[in-house]
Amino acid sequence: MGNRIDHFETSGDFIRWLQDTPAALGWGAGGRNQESEAYGGGIVGRGCDTLDEAYSLAETGWPEGLERMKDRVNVLRASGRSRVRIRDVAGDLPDVGAFLAGAPESMTRRVVAESTRRPVLDMIVNCQFQGSVPAESIMNFGAAIALVIDAMENVGVSVALSICSFTLNTGHGNGVFGAVIGMKQAGEPLELDRLVFYTAHPSFQRRLMFGVFERQVEAARFNWGYGGYAEMPDVPEGAIYISARSCSAACSTPEAALRYVKDIVNKARPDLLESDFQQAA
Predict the structure, then answer these.
(1) E strands of 47-115, at which residues?
(2) Between the chain's N and C termini, which has fewer beta carbons within 10 Å?
């Protein structure tokens, strides 16, 4: 059996497809309406105890979750701007040449300025969480993702972001099934309240993505449950791919989750090691 991976240009396309496509697997709907915390029930803010409530949060964002993320890790709102150094009469570093020339503006300071040409970075985040991963670890992972992307945007890197989730059908030929969802194109503003729903709310995986698997006819022939964890089969060349596979152990605290995500980014993009990204994140 081959793979089936559905691609959606935007999160809106993804939600509309879920709402308009009949499920091929009928027994999952009850599970996706569970009120347990593992499925995102009773987390924080507006209710997410049902599939319809998950649809609503996916479309409009999760501002209460964003506030909770800020309590875990100091998530800064992205402004799509970069930090540059300008000359002034006061600042934190001297401009030796200007000082020797007698110019009054002989100091430099860092400011935030609009950037018209920005390097582009493709990032793909696999938000497939194994059943044993607690909601707290999922939220820590999501907070770290939001912080790292926000930090990149604030030092002049334009991030093109996709969210994905896959499952391995161990019962019928080991096919990989799932979806890739475009969350942000390069140059677009970062909507953190929507991002944290997809990366930090258990309902994305355990309601919406289970719904995807129920609509992929081949995936409906699971041996049991919704299959097993799967990585992205073909990661595009040059993209930073962040997997939640080790989330349970690696994201037990906000600080551990941030180290986990930053280590992956640093291995993929060592040029960021000495940049302002390290201080911003």
Answers:
(1) 81-88, 93-94, 107-114
(2) N
